[in-house]
Amino acid sequence: MKFAAKGLAVCAVTAASMLAPAWASARTPLPLTYAPVDFLYYSPQLGASLLPPAGFGQVGAQIGSIAANSPLRAMWSPSIGRFHADPGDTIVSLSHIPIWNSGHLTKIASQLRGCVAITIRDGVTGVLYSGSVDLLPVYYP
User: How much is the pTM?
Assistant: First the structure.
């Protein structure tokens, strides 16, 4: 009985080593197989880096960082006057087009010029602010 159990253990180890891929025994790090598509975008028209929306089921593009010359630092609303966006705020719509994610916002902003309507959700309070923003001109060679 002892011999039979030992024989089964040897067979199991041999079978496991034959089934294991060659790279498993080399102990090399595996290549990254998943890279998030919507991780970080930069919109030159808005002068800001954009992140995916914060929270499950949220739409829009969350603002990661804002450049010094960004038009997001000087927006205008008839109801509240001059206002600005902060990192952590979310751009919900641009030119009355609902924004789904950062890639979508980058694509929409690249097709627009001049002063356009914008709606921003405050990252702290969740309040929506509507106004206008003057997009930066981008020249492509």
Answer: 0.68
